Amino acid sequence: MKKTGNFDFLDDEKIAEKIIDFKDKNITFVRFFIPSIYCSSCISVLENLSNHHKYILESTVDFSNKKVGIIFKNKNLKLSKLAVFLEKIGYKPSINSESIEDNQEKIFDRKLIGKLAVSFFCFGNIMLLAIPEYVGAYEDVWFLENRNFFRYLMVILSFPVVLFSLMDHVKYALLGLKKHIFNMDIPITIGIVVLFLWSCYEVFLDLGSGYFDSLAGFSFFLLLSRMFQIHTHRRILSFDQNYKSFYPIYVSRICNNNNEAPKEEKILLSSLKKGDLIAIRNEEIIPADSILIKGIALLDNSFITGESHLINKKIGERIYAGSKQKGEIIYLKIIKNIDQSYLSLLWNKKKFQKKKLLHLNSISNRFSQYFTPIILMISIITGIYWSFINVSKVFQTTFSVLIITCPCALVLSSPLIFGNIIRFFSKKGFYVKDIFTMERISTIKTLIFDKTGTITDPNKEKVFFIGKKLRYKEKKIIASLLRNSNHPLSKKIFTELSIKEYYSINNFQEIIGQGMQGVIQNVSVKIGSQKYLGITINNCKETTVAVSINEKFSGYFLFRNFYRKGIKKIFKNLKKYEIVILSGDNNELEKKYLESILPKSSKILFNQSPEEKFNYVKKIQKNGKQVMMIGDGINDYAALNQSEVGVAISENPSNFFPSCDAFIQFNYLDKIFLFLKISKIATRLVIVNFMISLFYNGIGIIFAVTGHLKPFIAAILMPSSSLSVIIFSILSTWMVTRRFLS
Strand pairing of 645-650 and 310-313? Predict the structure, then answer.
């Protein structure tokens, strides 16, 4: 029995704290660095740990950093036992003093670079040794007499190549078979084994020089493809890793200047550092581990634990990054610098990830399910055919089919195409999380838009107060309540009031999409919709926010909407899609205007609560519709997550958006049609890449089946296939994006 490593040191609380990101009484969230993560098979196994261990609740893979985040029940499972479990299934965590003290990982680990260097050395030398035979060196008597020296030298040089390749692929091929999955590691393993054994057979029996050059080239390009894949994923996942560079994310920092009153200033999340004091309002996410200094913290940790119950924190207690405040404004002191990778994982909303894992890289998955069985079938049929024609060629032709169809080029296709498209999109204000999201975007048929803050421009809205003129104290009371909310209408009224000093608030409550209430200066204040306040405003068909003070209706704020520039053209370009407008408003004038600019088949549903938006998305998905939801990321939280693709839109966001698959800057909304069109083209380009690879495989199969596959032909076809895919991916994505986005 294989001896497992000793991870007992992880049960030491001081050591465990350095790798644990979140811990409460029942649940712990930890991330391990797993060096052996390198392909989609690894992701599949590690994302489904909960199916293999009853105390593991969820697991998420950060591919580019080779990390797995695991949520587990800490009462039933020790951290050390979890590490042992991972080792037993073939994914041993790498834990040492360097990894504990420094979370920064290099883009490519040293082992991979070392393998690439050795593989390149062997490939180059084997090619030099093979070339003389290709150019007719047998006519030289000296070379003919010493041919075995060169051939055996090629055998020796091929050993490290084969060793590296088998170490990388055999284990994952077996894991795939155990899961009844025909992944790409299976044909790769078959190809490497057959190439090596057949080549040795030819050399030892003096039948030829074998295919060692093709084997070395194949291994070298496989390593290159992995480098490309890691590099592409890093570019793709830089949306997560370099979140600050893509988003103008701001935090409210408290400034104390000597004896002056504390002031708030908006700073970039990237400028936040240990020791800073920050203000967090209702529905905002805590960006870093902190200590509660002032206020009542009522926290939703569902982003971390998946459990929606609220947790109270007292002054002086620690609050973890990723917790969401549900209540009045609180003040925190940052005690730990921002862990960017962790915030990326929080943004990746694990609760809904399993639903979307079913669609992971589906083109490649569907293709690989058929590729391996078909190749094996062709190989068997070829052997049977030659058993009747010429028995001596049975093994040669059978193995030749397996040799020439190694799928190196197929591994490159999706990451290169989708990765390049994502990179071009990011330059135009549309940030897509990963290649799997890109593929889902290409299947979208239904577009759902929120109205307020999405297709309307909140900066151009005008606010009027209808009712008894408000005194300064009343304005101050209203502003003190509004400052705790992140709703677009609340923020707009708060800005219009221009109050700089505030009262403290008690018993704050907010029902998202309806309103809020609290007790200020012993006065009961309630602000929200007419329904929330239990009143009716006659002859008013526009957006309103009503106010009651001491349970007496004081008046209402009236909003005049302004739609974003070019909104008519946006909807005109999207006429081939089914368009739905979901809004919490109840304004007949707005509805009539939208009907005039939307395609005739569109639907407009007003007076929709966040829960009703969520239910509507769920309802049409049951009818087989693929949905993209575009909203402001606040009231549309549930609907964004339920959609196949949730897109958050903002121009100057002051809070975190963990609920979206993509983010679009407001001034690029008019290009949404082009983004959708290019995503469909990208899917076709991936298919073309497959066709290019199959074209080379087809030519090779013809040579193999007819018994004419020579080492020289294999040495040309196999590298050419990979190079063609790489060149096509780069040129095609550049041409497409240049045509539509320049």
Answer: unpaired
